[in-house]
């Protein structure tokens, strides 16, 4: 009886041919559905690329327009008689805004991520981290309104005084960081100093750097700004918008560095700042590089802020590095003129906007590829 019980139980565990076939078919169906769901983003990207290329190709039939597009600064596509499609100033405006925002966002983002990960306590970092991430939740149109209604009048009315204040505020933080880093690095190289002497050295370095920033602030205090809607306005706002991306990914990269590397460095006699700059940051360089590239992609693809606060001037600033002049970007041009382009007849004005979209798309794909290549290449180079 006991053996019969085990035989009956074993028969119940053996699946029939029909049940096995049904399970196999359900497994195939489930995998196919999951594959289809996974392929949806890829299919969407392929269709977007195909559509943009399809609408861009007619513009390249006229080689004179193509040459003018990349070499001229005259942009009058709405003229019925003799339209001009020179987008050189628009490309330069895009490059200028990207470089300006990068000069602010990249060092600030890396410093914030290092501070939150390595310097302040865990509890304090958990207080500040949500505020940084909250910047990503603010709609871009809200940033645009702030840049246009609040920040632009401040720049225009107070001019150089406002820039001087920003230089001094930035100078305090940068001088403090420079004093800590330089005193830690070079204090023991000069001679074996006590903590009191090291403090004096840091104070001296802080005073020297602050004197430099004060000199710069005095020099720029007399600057007159004709329009608050300019490249500087947009660069600062875009830098704030790129901070969450740079800070979050850089924090993940720094947190991924093994604790044994930090403890080993400290055990060998390195200071906290030597450990950060000589061990932690080099170990996390691949993740930080990816964070910077993704932050730049966020800047290049932004539309509302640059449309509302850049001034939309179709000329290259004079001199070319003058961030106090209005500029215009590719995204702002597309957003501002697509509604006026004649889509039904397929005018050259309509197709040239898709050429701009194609340029932005290729730039985004190139930077995405670069981020993956940099991440993998730097990890192999460790």
Give an overview in words:
With 382 residues, the protein is mainly alpha-helical. It has 15 helices and 2 strands. It has helices at residues 2-13, 17-56, 63-71, 88-119, 122-137, 140-158, 160-190, 195-220, 231-255, 259-267, 272-283, 285-300, 304-309, 330-337, 348-381, and strands at residues 75-76, 84-85. It has a two-stranded antiparallel ribbon with strand order 1-2. Helix 7 (160-190) packs antiparallel against helix 8 (195-220), helix 10 (259-267) packs antiparallel against helix 11 (272-283) and helix 14 runs antiparallel to helix 15 (348-381). It is flat, with a radius of gyration of 28 Å.
Order of helices and strands: HHHEEHHHHHHHHHHHH
Structural class: mainly alpha
Q: Classify the beta-strand content into a percent band.
A: under 5%
User: Total helix count?
Assistant: 15
Largest sheet: 2 strands, antiparallel
Which descriptor suits the 3D outline? flat
Uncertain regions: pLDDT < 50 for 5+ in a row?
A: none
Q: Taking Cα atoms only, what radius of gyration do you get, to the nearest Å?
A: 28 Å
Taking all residues together, what is the mean pLDDT? 81
Percent in helix: over 70%
Number of strands: 2
The spatial strand order of the largest sheet comes to 1-2
Terminal CA distance: 68 Å
């Amino acid at each position: 009886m006991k053996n019969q019980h085990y035989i009956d139980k074993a028969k119940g565990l053996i699946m029939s041919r029909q049940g096995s076939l049904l399970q196999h078919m359900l497994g195939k169906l489930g995998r196919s559905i999951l594959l289809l769901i996974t392929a949806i983003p890829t299919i969407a990207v392929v269709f977007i690329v195909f559509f943009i290329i399809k609408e861009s190709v007619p513009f390249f039939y006229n080689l004179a327009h193509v040459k003018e597009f990349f070499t001229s600064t005259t942009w009058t596509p709405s003229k019925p008689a003799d339209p001009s499609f020179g987008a050189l100033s628009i490309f330069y405006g895009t490059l200028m805004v990207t470089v300006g925002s990068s000069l602010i966002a990249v060092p600030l983002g890396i410093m914030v991520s290092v501070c939150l990960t390595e310097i302040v306590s865990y509890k304090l970092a958990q207080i500040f981290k949500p505020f940084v991430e909250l910047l990503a939740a603010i709609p871009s149109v809200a940033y645009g309104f702030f840049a246009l209604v609040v920040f632009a009048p401040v720049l225009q009315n107070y001019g150089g005084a406002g820039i001087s204040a920003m230089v001094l505020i930035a100078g305090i933080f940068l001088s403090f960081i420079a004093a800590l880093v330089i005193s830690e690095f070079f204090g023991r190289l000069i001679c074996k100093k006590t903590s009191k002497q090291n403090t004096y050295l840091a104070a001296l370095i802080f005073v020297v750097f602050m004197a430099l920033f004060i000199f710069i602030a005095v020099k720029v205090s007399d600057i007159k700004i004709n329009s608050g809607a300019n490249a500087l306005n947009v660069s600062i706002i875009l830098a704030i918008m790129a901070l969450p991306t740079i800070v979050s990914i850089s924090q993940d990269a720094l947190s991924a560095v093994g604790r044994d590397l930090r403890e080993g460095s400290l055990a060998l006699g390195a200071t906290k700042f030597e450990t950060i700059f000589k061990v932690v940051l080099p170990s996390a360089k691949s993740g930080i590089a990816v964070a910077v590239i993704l932050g730049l992609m966020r800047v290049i693809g932004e539309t509302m802020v640059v449309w509302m606060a850049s001034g939309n001037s179709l000329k290259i600033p004079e001199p070319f590095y003058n961030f106090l002049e209005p500029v215009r970007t590719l995204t702002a041009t597309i957003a501002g003129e697509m509604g006026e382009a004649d889509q039904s007849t397929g005018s050259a004005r309509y197709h040239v906007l898709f050429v701009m979209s194609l340029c932005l798309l290729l730039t985004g794909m190139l930077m995405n590829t670069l981020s993956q290549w940099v991440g993998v290449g730097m990890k192999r180079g460790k």
